[in-house]
Every structure is written in structure tokens, then in C-alpha cells.
Specification:
The structure is a homodimer. By secondary structure, chain A is α/β, with parallel strands linked by helices. Chain A has 3 domains: 5-78, Multidrug-efflux Transporter Regulator, Chain: A, Domain 2 (Orthogonal Bundle); 93-171, Methionine synthase domain (Methyltransferase, Methionine Synthase (B12-binding Domains), Chain A, domain 1), CATH 1.10.1240.10; 181-300, 3-Layer(aba) Sandwich (Rossmann fold), CATH 3.40.50. In chain A, 54% of the residues lie in helices and 10% in strands. The first copy, chain A, is built from 13 helices and 8 strands. In chain A, the strands form 2 sheets. The first copy, chain A, has a 5-stranded parallel beta sheet, sandwiched between helices. In chain A, helix 7 (110-124) packs across helix 8 (126-146) and helix 8 runs antiparallel to helix 10 (194-205). The longest helix of chain A has 21 residues, at 126-146. Chain A is globular, with a radius of gyration of 22 Å. Chain A binds a DNA duplex through helix 2.
Amino acid sequence: MNTPSFNIAAVERDTGLSKDVLRMWERRYGFPVPDRDSNGERCYPAEQVERLRLIKRLMDQGHRPGKLIATPAEELTALAPRRSARREPEPTAEAGELAELLALIKQHDAGAYQQAMQQRLARQGLQRFVQDTVAPLTRRVGEYWEDGNFEVFEEHLFTELTKRLLRQAIAALPGGQRGPRVLLTSVPEEQHVLGLLMVEALLALEGAECIPLGTQMPLLEIARAASAHRADIVALSFSVAFPVRQIPALLTQLRQIMPTETGLWVGGGGTARLTGQPGMTLLPTLDAALQALAAWRETQA
Amino acid sequence: MNTPSFNIAAVERDTGLSKDVLRMWERRYGFPVPDRDSNGERCYPAEQVERLRLIKRLMDQGHRPGKLIATPAEELTALAPRRSARREPEPTAEAGELAELLALIKQHDAGAYQQAMQQRLARQGLQRFVQDTVAPLTRRVGEYWEDGNFEVFEEHLFTELTKRLLRQAIAALPGGQRGPRVLLTSVPEEQHVLGLLMVEALLALEGAECIPLGTQMPLLEIARAASAHRADIVALSFSVAFPVRQIPALLTQLRQIMPTETGLWVGGGGTARLTGQPGMTLLPTLDAALQALAAWRETQA
DNA sequence: GATTCGTTTTGTCCTAGACAAATAGGACGT
DNA sequence: ACGTCCTATTTGTCTAGGACAAAACGAATC
């Protein structure tokens, strides 16, 4: 049995490194060095793909490719997250409970996780459930993933199950009639939806009329949707994984093509290090979203 | 106010045409011809982006780019779907009801749509709801979209609302304990999830243990997840929008890296024109999925 | 410790050529 | 009229190497 080999498109799919980057690294750093097929096209052995995935993960934690590629394989696996100005959460009873929930995911016990979360939802109520359970849990999952404690598919399982809980809870709420009409979505390439769902839950609780459009809307479509739905506000979410450098240009462009009277709210972990621009409201936290809602109602009153 | 202009990455995002294709068309057909900024980089005016979006839509319907680009703008908008070997559905009472549901989406009345669908679910029961309502509705939406009757954001709204209904219905089912353990997901680039949810609903109804991992899993992760969850079956979905040419290579590769004893079920509209390969089961229809389930149980008995 | 300023690193864009897979269209046979 | 084979065209993706701007670093300064 020959080890399967990947063409450059497959490697891009599986690692998230663009073809341009893969070729550039080969030229510059001498890694990866794929075999060539009869047409002279690159064939990456599984081993190199595995290394690339590891490198990508460490890069997402703030390491630089030049260094990583020069590092021998054994040291790579031992590398810790670099930009961890993260303070350890005190081991409160609360933190322990969250850890237990994540342990269920790690054991791949979907049923038990769902049940435990349902209980918390019932106990805390939707607002506190979102703010005190889902939000910190999501943050923890990000940290676990950074530390290499979660596999991709474990993160996916967590996301999928949690999405279901939130959607279910939102569906149980009465359709909001008083607040602003808020259109929730994300730009292409941004597929994370948990943040949007958390905001939707909070806004819906406050009686706002939420229009969920899912993720990955082309900018022009967002603008059209805003007009068609006569939305008061377009709310976008950027996860920490989204390349920060692209966000300002995206927002400026969207602002240009959107109706002037429609508000633009931008939130999610990816916006933490962003500076505000005219015509849009930054919502680095869930609380900020609630405040923005109150402020909007103020101006309308 | 100057019209906003798009760099090549933005056009790729908004049209779904790769940078390579955009440059190639420019070289070969003389369209699009973007302006250049001070660095000599392409700046596409909004007008050309709009035309590209239209061309892309017609291409998805089977037209060829060479012809489309040569066609003057006025004729483009009038072009009908080309591969429409589609027979008009007879105007039964049933078809009328489906049209009414879609009309609600077209009116952007999310609340009324949800309510109407809830009623149908209660009336038909989950199995018939999936097979007689959601499946034909999804097909209709695809046709509407092909015919230019649906905007992207209307399709998104439909998808999002319908996803919620299905997930809600699935959550209400007891956790399956007897059937095979089925891991449901899709490959990277494939973000359509409705098909997966329909299958999940049917399998869960039959008592199978479904593990939903969401969409867009790298192949290596699918293999890992299959091992970790000790899945009996991995079920993948390809929508009609997925480039058919890439599917066989993907499946072969996945089959190679997956545990031999794990089954591979492949379904969705994108697999209709696919020929089977050893080690995998094609499920062109929802019925086929139920048959495959029965067959699997047969072999285990 | 914080801020500024050069230097290095890094990703993305550019041109232009080659080739193989997919499709169209014609010729042929039934 | 319909299906099948074959050839020509169309089309997307890959290749190579060069250029440049933005981000990140690190050193010197306040």
C-alpha cells in the first residue's frame, strides 16, 4: 500500500495554507519539498501535510513560519502558545463545571453533553446561559484548541451541538415585535456562527426582531438584504480566526454599498484589536451588544 | 462619491471565481478589464463585478463562459437555464402549497414561514415532512435560484429557517441506541448542510446513532473522527453546486485514509451523475439512505 | 516600562506559458 | 430519429520566478 499523496489543491484544503504560500515557502525556506508527478506537478506526501498542519496551528498561535520551519520536528510538538498573555482562570467552582462539560466533548459523549447543557439552560435562563455558559465555554474551546488539547473534529462537535441548543432556545422565544429589525450574518470566508447565535439570543430576549441569514454572505448581497428586509441594523461577526488585516477594508466597502440609514454593528473575537470607524459600532463583548441595543432605542424614542 | 472598486481578492470572494480564472479570462476573452491602481494591481469597478456575478450564475446553469462573455449585457439577463431537461411539475394541490411556502420567503416573512412549516411538521410527522416537504422544497429553491427568481439572501434565509426546524425536530427525538453509529459531515468547500440534516432526521427516526459534525471537515480529520467515535459509517453530502469533477478524487483519497471497516455513504444532488466505486455506497435519494440502513442492519444480524 | 524608527519577514499580487480534463459537434451506424 | 464514437475546441488549474507593501520585530531612545 503506497502512502496517499496530495496535490497542491488538496493541501490547501486540508491545511488552510494558500497555494501561493505553499509555493513561496518551498522557494524561500526549502520546505515543504513535494515529489513531482509525470506532469511536473507537486505531490505532497502525507507526512509533509501533517507537518504543515502542525505549523499552521502554531502560526495561529502567533509563531512565525520562518522560525517554525527551521525547527526540528520533535521540538515543534512541544511548542507552547506564544501570545499567551492569557491569565489562568482561578479554579472556581464555575470553572470546574465548564471543564466537566468540555470533558464530555473530549469523551465524544454527545448525549451527555446535550443533557448537561439543557439542564444548565433550564437552571440559568437563556440570558445567563449565553453569557455565563456558552460564551466562556466557547472561549475555553478556543484555548483548548490552541493548546492542542482539542482535535478539529472535537471542536466541530462542540460547535454543532451548541448551535443546536441555542437555535432551539431562540425558536422558543416569541417573535420580537418592538425592537429594531436586526439582520445577522457574516462575510464570505467567515463561517463561525456561534457568536452570531449568542447575539441573536440576547437581542431576541430583549424583543428585537432578528433575521438570521446564516454565514458567508457576499458583501453586495448583504447590502441588498438590508434593503429588502428594511433592516435597521446589520450585525456582522468576525471570529478570532479571521485575518484581522482584511477586516477594515471589508467594513469600509460594505459601509459604502449599504443604505446610509442602516446601522452596522460589528462584533466577535476578531474585532478586539480593531479601532472604530465612522458609521459603524464595534461590539467587542456581548454586553456591548446589549448596550448598543439600549442606545439605539434611546435615539428612536 | 466615487463608485467603490474591488481588488481581485474581493472579486473572488463575491463572485466565487478564482483569481486564476479572473486573470485567465482577461487574457483570453478580454473581459473583465479592471483598472489598475498605483501598484499595477487590478481594481474591478462594481459594474464589472455585477456582470461577473451574472455570468457565474449562468455558468452554474450549464452555459459556457466563452459564449457568455461574448454576449451583450441585455441578452444576458434574458438567458434561460440551459440544461433544463427539467419537466414542469404538474400543478397539483401539493405543488401549490409548496409554492405558497416559497412565496412567504420571497416576502421575507420569516415568522409566517416558520409557523406554516411547524404546522406541516405536526400534520405530516417528521418522516413525511422531510421527504414530502423539505426535500421537494429544497429542490424548488434550487430551481427558483437557477431561474433568477431568488436572490442569494433569500436562499440563505430559507436555508437558515429550515435548518432550524429540522434541528429542532431532531433534538426532540430520543438518542438512537440500536442502529449503526453514523458520522455526518461534509468536505471542505462544501457548506450545504440541509441534505445532511434530512438524512440525519431519517436515520435518527430509525433509531440510528447520529453524530453531526457540521460541514467542512478536512479529509484527515474525517478519518480521525471516524476512529475516535468508532463510527460504523461516515456519511458525506455533496450539493449540486459542488464541482463534480473533484468528487471522485476526494472519495478515493478519503477511502484510503479511513479505517477499512468503516462504511462510506455518499449522497446529495452532486452525486447524481457519479458512478460507484468499491468501498463506498452512493445514495442519490433519501430513500436510498433508508435502504442502505436496512441493508447494513441485515449484514450485522 | 513605553515609544519611535529602521530592518526583516511574510503574504499577496503580477506576467506568461503549458497541459489535461471536460465539452461540443460532427460522422457514423443502427 | 436516436445513440455512440471520435476529434477539435474550450476551459481550468498548474508552473516559474519577480516585485512590492504591510506587518512584525528588535534596537535605541525617551
